[in-house]
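Subject: complex prediction, re-run

Hi both,

The earlier run crashed halfway through, so I resubmitted it with identical inputs.
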Amino acid sequence: MKTTGEGEREYRRSELLKLAAVAGGAVILGGPAALAKAAQEGATSESGRLQVLDWVGYGNDGGQSMFAQYVKTHPHNKPQFTHMTNESDALAKLRAGLKPDLFRPYVGWVKYFAESGLVQPWNPKLISNFKHLNPFMVKAGQQHGKQYGIPDDWGFDAILYRSDKVHPKARSWGLLFDERYKGRIAWFDDLEMLVIAGLYLKMAKPWHQTDEQLKRSQDLLIKKKHLVRLIWASESDLWQAFGSKELWIAYAWPNDWVQMKNKHLKVVYMRPKEKPIAWVGMFMLLKGTPRPHLAHAYVDAWSSAKSGKWLENNYGYGHANTVARPSSSALLKALQLTNPKAVTEPAAHLDRDIPRRAVYARMWEEVKAS
Amino acid sequence: MATEAGAAAPLPRRRRLRLDLSTPALLGLPLGWLAVFFLVPIAIVAAYSFNVYSIDPGPHSFTLKAWHDFLHSPIYLKLFWKSVKMSLAVSAVVVVLAYPLAYFLALSGTKRKYVLLLLLIAPFLTSYLLRVLAWKVILGDQGVINSFLFWTGLRSPDHPVSQLLYSRFAVMLVLGYIWLPFVALPIFVSLESLDRRLLEAASDLGASRLQAFRRVTLPLSLPGIFAAFLFVFIPTLGEFVTPSLVGGASGYMYGNQIVDLFGTGFPDWETGSVLAIFLLGVVAVLTVAFARFLQPGQVATE
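This time it finished cleanly. Structure:
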């Protein structure tokens, strides 16, 4: 066995080819059962704990139900988690030398990571639940015809507000900039805020703003920043501040709405007329991982209808598995979980690649520093 | 005579050699530690700031662009100035608060001064994070202070004092609380080492207690005051944990910007390194400038 870094990559590439051959043969000769067996055998030949770079709440801090099947099948290769606060944070960690087996950026980053050389495509044949995944979301995970992202959780960026305190003049992103609620508003600590500003300013391509447009978006945010009490980076910070009634309005995700309802607050999750931004979580496989089979098995567990139902019930997010349905019909309706194209036009803007991401990031940092 | 002659005689060669070798041997470890874990990392960060190293793959070469952008950016320098002002205010207020405390402990003559000193630093036996988070409970809209105001009828529950948490005030208050014992200690040490005979002499010469304090105690305790001031000012200038927990949007400080540039924002290690090296440079200059005040003899003679 070669021991150099390059050698290891070659070895793993050959392993993957072998894996694909075994998988293909298994499909021809034995069907899905044989394929599952082949994948299982491949996974058991790998050693060590599966290294997962994921968001808070998706690991051993509450998300165990979504990968319980994996832990049951691979008790000696339990996942070990490192947290990411957003994709930029994940990128910084990867560039700095962190070596997870897989991680979860969102759909707007698929192109960036696929072209970064950091990741490799999945083999969908090794994921038994792949056939149940929403075809539109599956396609969104593809780049150059290869499946770089396996879709999983999905939801929206929209506005959460307290209906007993806030009376919006319109269903608009403008509520985040409403002077009447100074000191009661929370923004999200992400360059996506520039996209929101672009949507509010009625720009045709808020993900691809010109320098002049970006300046306008930045000026709006700087001008309105004095209204903002908190720029949250972690959901737990948002929940704490919103739950203790310091905040009335927030840029939020569906789970935040669920959490605040659980605290018996009168809250509304508003879809602005400029449309919410929809996101789809995409598992991505790191290039050169020594545990590709285990990573496939882990994603397979996450992709099951059982995991999907749990996610929907407990976090209020949608799940790419079309068979998964939440127990609550109210939740089903509120999140439009029955709509297979809930994440795209005309219902929402699907988050997308930002070609000038570094420029956006710099301008967002300047907003915070202003 | 024999002893004197022995003392005057040159050291045997073997002993001299041992002395000569022991000094670098003793210094070697700490110097090596300093070089490997302080100077080398700083050099690496500096290299990032000039794009000699880069987090992005692909070709890169020496450039001053990030430095140029930083020095011409009103936003970063304005943020730095905001942080300087906050740190200065915290340091000054905390020194003023800590001085009477240290004075009492050092000069009151109480036999329990070390017990009281221990009580003063007792909060340091608990987690820094816990102490900061406890302030969230105190300062929040439903927190201890607001609940008290509701109870007294000074504020209604619909109109709490909401500027207490997630504000610049919150950051400064919590930083002051965190650093107060650190400030009291150097002042205490400088006051305790004060030669009491000087105070007696001042009294004998007709000085009132206030005059003795102004003309004797205060000048002689200045090294402790300057040390205490620097003890707070330097770390709070680069602080990022407290602002991120209780600062909200308006309490954002220069240290938070460095962290965000390295991690949570789209990774921009080049600019982040510029900000970090600039901070380091300012702190180094301040330390050198204040160093002369940290020598007791220097101050006492002036």
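Chain B has one domain: 74-301.

- K.
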